[in-house]
Amino acid sequence: MNKWYLYLMNTIKLKCCSGCGTSFDCGDISEQKKCWCNDFPPIFNFSEEGDCLCPNCFKKSCSLKIEEYITTVSPENALDNKAKDLPKTTHLIEGIDYYLENGNYVFKAWFHLKRGNCCGNGCRHCPY
After folding, report:
1. Domains of the chain by residue range
2. What gap in Å lies between CA 57 and CA 114, rounded to an integer?
3. pLDDT tens per residue, range 25-44
């Protein structure tokens, strides 16, 4: 085997999306380099969704799952929600944690639920 092939095999892990069939780079090749999907909240098992999903399908699936969950949250039960118990991350994902409106970040209910309490600023999507 040539060196280029060995290099590629150690830096790229190609997968086929079980949602749309697109090939994509998994990224999970070692303990030091984890897959891009680790930036997303760990909210579903792959057994529910099939095998790995490409970035677009994964984001859509994650967003749908979060939106389904948010419909079950009311001000009465918001303080005791599953999102606040997830591992903390500083990485925000557009479309999941926030959206842009006229150049401004608008935080979605998921972002507020992960924080675990109301900040008292009267946020548009505050679930508390």
Report:
1. 1-71, 75-128
2. 23
3. 887 655 666 787 878 888 76
